[in-house]
C-alpha cells in the first residue's frame, strides 16, 4: 500500500491489541520512515480521538516503532515522536483506568531503562504523568495510581495534606507552569538539536529540495518551541505575580502582628507591676493587723505579780509563846 494520509489513518483504525496487529502496523510505518513527521502527526490526531483502550494500543504501537528504530539506529521516528510523546502519553494515561495507567507507566519505564528517548524527553513524559497523578490525588484526597516506578518518588502512594485556602490559587498557577514547562522542554531540545545539525559547517549541504524541506521542518520546530516557551513565560510571570501578592499581604500582616505584640508586651509589664504593688500592700496590711492584735490583748488581760506560782503554806516553826 502506497503512503498517503488516508492509508495511515486506515492502518491506525484497524489496529487492535494483538501483538501481530501492532507489529504489522509498526513495520508498515517504519518502511515509510521518510514520512515520519507526518505519520507522527496523524498518530497523535488519532490518539486524541480514540477511546481509552484504543489509546493504549496506539501507545503500544509508538513503543514498537521507536524501539525498532532505536535498534536499527534510524532516528527518523525518534525525532518525529520526541516533541509529542509527552503530551500523547499524558492524554492516554489521563483517560484510562487504573489497569491501563499501570500498563502505560510500564511502557514509559521501559523507555527509561533502554534509553529510547533523550533524557529531557523522558523526564518531561514522566513529569506529565506525575501531574495527572497529583490532579487525581487532589480531587480524591488519596494517592495516585501505580507503585514506585521511575525511582520510587514519582508515583508514591502517600496522601498529601490539604492545601491551605491562601495557597490554592498559587497551587493552580504552579500546576499550569509545570505543565507548560514540561511541554516546552522537549520542543526546545528538539529545536536545538535540529538547529545544530542543520547549521553545522562540517555537515555536507544536501540537494536544494532536501535542504529546503529540512529548513521548513526546522522552522516548524523552532516555531513550536518558541510558542511553548512563550506559554511557559506567561505562566511563570503569573505565578510570580501571585507570589508577590502573597508576600505583600504577609508583610502587611507581619507589621500588624508586630504592633499587636508590642502593645500586649507593654500591657503585660504594666499589669505585672500593678499586681506586685497590690501584693506588697496586702503583705504590709497583714503585718500591721498582727501587731495591733497583740497590743490589744495585752491591755485587756494584765499579768499577775510574779511569784513562784506555789500556794501559801504555814510555817513549820511555831510562833513564840505569849509572855504574861
TrEMBL record:
One GO MF term attached to the UniProt entry: RNA polymerase II C-terminal domain binding
Low complexity composition-biased segments: 287-300
A biological process term (GO) from this entry: mRNA 3'-end processing
Pfam families linked to this entry: CID
Residue ranges of every copy of the CID domain listed in the record: 1-133
Statement: the UniProt record of this protein carries the keyword Coiled coil: yes
PROSITE patterns: CID
Species this chain originates from: Aureobasidium melanogenum (strain CBS 110374)
Positions in coiled-coil regions: 247-274
The entry's keywords: Coiled coil
Region called Disordered, residue ranges: 274-324
Domain of life: Eukaryota
Annotated protein name in UniProt: DUF618-domain-containing protein
Amino acid at each position: 500500500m502506497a503512503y498517503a494520509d488516508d492509508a495511515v489513518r486506515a492502518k491506525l483504525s484497524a489496529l487492535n491489541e494483538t501483538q501481530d496487529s501492532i507489529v504489522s502496523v509498526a513495520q508498515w510505518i517504519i518502511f515509510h520512515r521518510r514520512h515520519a513527521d507526518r505519520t507522527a502527526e496523524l498518530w497523535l490526531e488519532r490518539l486524541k480521538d480514540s477511546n481509552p483502550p484504543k489509546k493504549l494500543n496506539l501507545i503500544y504501537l509508538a513503543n514498537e516503532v521507536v524501539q525498532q528504530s532505536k535498534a536499527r539506529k534510524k532516528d527518523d521516528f525518534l525525532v518525529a515522536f520526541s516533541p509529542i510523546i509527552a503530551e500523547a502519553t499524558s492524554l492516554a494515561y489521563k483517560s484510562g483506568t487504573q489497569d491501563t495507567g499501570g500498563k502505560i507507566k510500564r511502557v514509559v519505564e521501559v523507555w527509561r531503562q533502554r534509553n529510547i528517548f533523550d533524557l529531557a524527553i523522558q523526564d518531561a513524559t514522566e513529569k506529565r504523568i506525575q501531574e495527572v497523578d497529583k490532579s487525581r490525588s487532589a480531587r480524591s484526597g488519596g494517592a495516585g495510581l501505580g507503585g514506585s516506578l521511575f525511582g520510587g518518588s514519582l508515583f508514591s502512594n502517600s496522601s498529601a495534606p490539604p492545601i491551605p485556602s491562601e495557597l490554592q490559587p498559587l497551587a493552580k498557577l504552579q500546576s499550569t507552569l509545570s505543565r507548560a514547562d514540561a511541554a516546552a522542554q522537549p520542543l526546545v531540545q528538539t529545536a536545538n538539536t535540529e538547529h545544530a545539525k542543520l547549521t553545522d559547517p562540517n555537515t555536507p549541504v544536501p540537494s536544494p529540495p532536501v535542504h529546503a524541506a529540512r529548513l521548513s521542518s526546522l522552522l516548524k520546530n523552532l516555531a513550536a518551541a518558541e510558542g511553548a516557551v512563550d506559554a511557559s513565560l506567561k505562566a511563570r510571570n503569573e505565578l510570580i505575580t501571585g507570589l508577590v501578592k502573597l508576600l505583600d499581604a504577609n508583610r502587611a500582616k507581619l507589621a500588624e502582628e508586630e504592633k499587636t505584640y508590642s502593645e500586649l508586651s507593654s500591657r503585660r509589664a504594666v499589669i505585672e507591676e500593678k499586681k506586685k504593688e497590690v501584693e506588697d500592700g496586702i503583705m504590709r496590711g497583714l503585718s500591721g493587723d498582727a501587731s495591733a492584735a497583740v497590743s490589744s490583748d495585752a491591755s485587756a488581760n494584765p499579768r499577775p505579780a510574779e511569784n513562784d506560782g506555789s500556794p501559801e503554806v504555814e510555817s513549820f516553826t511555831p510562833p513564840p509563846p505569849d509572855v504574861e
